[in-house]
Give the backbone structure.
Amino acid sequence: MSAQRYWWVGAWVCLLLLAGCGQADDGWARVQETAVLRVGIDPTYPPFASTDGRDVWGLEVDLARALAAELGAEAQFTYFGFDGLYDALLTQQVDVLISALVVDVSRTRDFAYSTPYYNAGEVLLYAAGLELQGWRDLHDQSVAVELGSPAHMEANRWQRRLRGLMVLTYDTADAAVAAVVNGRTPAALVDATSAHLFLRQHPQTNLQQLPDPMTVRPYALVVRKEDGRLLRQLNHALARLQTSSQLAQIMAKWLR
């Protein structure tokens, strides 16, 4: 399955989840009236969001500001721990969550998700010179993963289907990728963010990446389920950012 098709599968799932959204306009009416989009964010997850206590920066901070501008508003950030994000939204302390949140079907009774803006799923990095078209070419090879990670679980599934595949575990995703660089294994399966950041920090590294992600873990905006009109406006704004390449520029700034 191509990367584009993966993306649209995730987007289609999100759109299905939106089908039951209510029609209440309170959230969008408040944004229009105040020209402020109140954003809930956990600023402890670089490069998506970081803070020094006074200012906040990161990929999702830039995304929130760009979305707010598309809506004719200004982004106002309120910081929460990850566990407090959904409660803050439910109690109307904020209008939207933009905080590396994966679409969670179990929460769709109270919340609704936008179309995805980022796929945080696993990607396969491999040594230059290795002829690799997909994960099925790893028979009689080894692959490095972070112990206990989603990549580890995915590689275990591969191992049950591929002859002679060895799964090598490391303490971190960076250590798994470094094992490829150091010649201890021909490939590493890690989450997309770890892969992007490793390649950004080691630009001379002679690694290749399969173009298609191995799994899909879509990050999306979250609103209260009754804020259907606000969600539609946010989805339209996301689409405009994609069409104008501004979303791609934000991604490149923080991940490339």
In short: The chain has two domains: 3-119+218-255, 122-209. The chain is about 40% helix and 20% strand. Residues 80 and 233 are 24 Å apart (CA to CA).
